[in-house]
Design a protein that fits this description.
CATH topology of the largest domain: Pseudouridine synthase
Number of strands: 15
CATH class of the largest domain: Alpha Beta
Low-confidence stretches: 337-352, 359-367
CATH architecture of the largest domain: 2-Layer Sandwich
Largest sheet: 9 strands, mixed
CATH superfamily of the largest domain: Pseudouridine synthase
Structural class: alpha+beta
Order of helices and strands: EHHEEEEEHEHEEEEEEHEHEHH
Strand content: 15-25%
Distance between the termini: 32 Å
């Protein structure tokens, strides 16, 4: 990574710049310090005690080395739908049926295998660092850090809950379509080690993990509900468990609900994700914009760029609804495929526009 130091950083210690402005972790900084060419200023090796000057050219050896490559993932050709990529990130639209990472019975057909094959062709050391993992039969946005430093930055963002994930889910049963944001705040328990299924339990249950999901009903009718859901916490199967606990399991979910003729998997798609751009303030003179409001997790300002950096230091990602989900939604909820308001009394709001754009022309979402 190469950065030209702005005049506003004149006189700052390099250590302060790396940790406070760039947000490098202690681990990443230690790694750079151990490399003879890890930290260069104007082509010369320096220590973190170097005093910066405006116009200095800072070079950081953040790329992975061959000795650090993941050797347990076999390179195997597979489809890759790349939504966005730069030196720090690669963002993919994962299809349903494709596991995120290898596991028993899926050693060569995962997103990780396909990425390993791509990097092998390009002669780039491969280390798989996904920011969370989607279930095999859940489709949508998957973010991977391309360097240890970027992955550490994103992990901190996830821990601080400054990553906003948005899922479209089709449910069995009809929830009220009131235009309000609702919360499901129910702990989740893994009954025993090695058991795949999770359980929603009461507060105070030993071993249970706190879990919070926000959601808004987009359309309801004909025995189904289309919702936009945002998991504030990131528990395994969280959205599936939470809606099942309300008595409204995801359509087609054969673990927490029942199979459906509408779709051959759980009807869940990670349609959008917003995250801070790694090292934004180090590379620009701008200031990062505010974290998207929790109350309006589903709304982005008109004109927000999708799948490319925005001017305020955020990256807002969008993965089109897959065909099987689209067909199921169109058949399950009357009128929603044509953008009609299935809620009747719901006033005209950006929420209606959101639904219309999602189902009619996702590429034009908020543009």
């Amino acid at each position: 990574m190469i950065i030209q130091i702005p005049a506003s950083c004149e006189g700052r210690l390099l250590r302060s710049y790396l940790q406070l402005t760039m947000g490098l972790s202690t681990t990443a900084l230690s790694r750079l310090k151990k490399d003879e060419r890890g930290i260069l200023v104007n082509g010369q090796h320096v220590t973190v005690r170097y005093v910066l000057h405006g116009g200095d050219v800072l070079s950081l050896a953040l790329d992975d080395k061959q000795t650090e490559a993941t050797e347990t993932v076999l390179p195997c050709e597979g489809p890759l739908d790349v939504l966005y990529e730069d030196d720090a990130l690669i963002v993919l639209n994962k299809p349903a049926g494709t596991p995120t990472h290898p596991s028993h019975g899926h050693l060569t057909d995962t997103l990780a295998n396909a990425l390993a094959a791509r990097y092998q062709k390009e002669g780039i050391p491969f280390v798989f660092r996904p920011l969370g993992r989607l279930d095999r039969n859940t489709s949508g946005v998957v973010v991977c850090g391309k360097t240890q430093a970027a992955a550490g930055f994103l992990g901190n963002c996830l821990a601080d809950r400054t990553v906003v994930k948005r899922y479209l889910a089709l449910l069995d049963g009809e929830l009220p379509c009131d235009g309000l944001t609702h919360e499901i705040e129910v702990p989740i328990l893994q009954p025993a080690a090695g058991i795949r299924m999770r359980t929603a339990v009461s507060d105070g249950t030993p071993g249970a993990e706190y879990a919070l999901t926000r959601y808004r009903v987009l359309a309801s009718g004909n025995g189904h509900t289309l919702v936009l859901a945002s998991p504030v916490t990131g528990r395994t199967h969280q959205i599936r468990v939470h809606f099942a606990s309300l008595g409204f399991p995801l359509t087609g979910d054969d673990v927490y609900g029942v199979p459906s003729p509408l779709i051959a998997r759980q009807a869940l798609h990670c349609v959008s994700l917003s995250l801070p751009m790694p090292f934004f303030s180090a590379q620009t003179a701008g200031r990062r914009g505010a974290v998207p409001s929790a109350a309006d997790f589903d709304l982005l300002p008109a004109g927000t760029p999708l799948n490319q950096p925005s001017g305020d230091g955020w990256l807002h990602l969008w993965a089109e609804m897959p065909e099987d989900f689209r067909r199921a939604a169109e058949e399950a909820v009357p009128g929603c495929a044509r953008g009609r308001d299935a809620c009747g009394a719901l006033p005209h709001t950006p929420l209606k526009d959101f639904l219309k754009e999602v189902l009619e022309n996702p590429k034009n979402f908020h543009k």
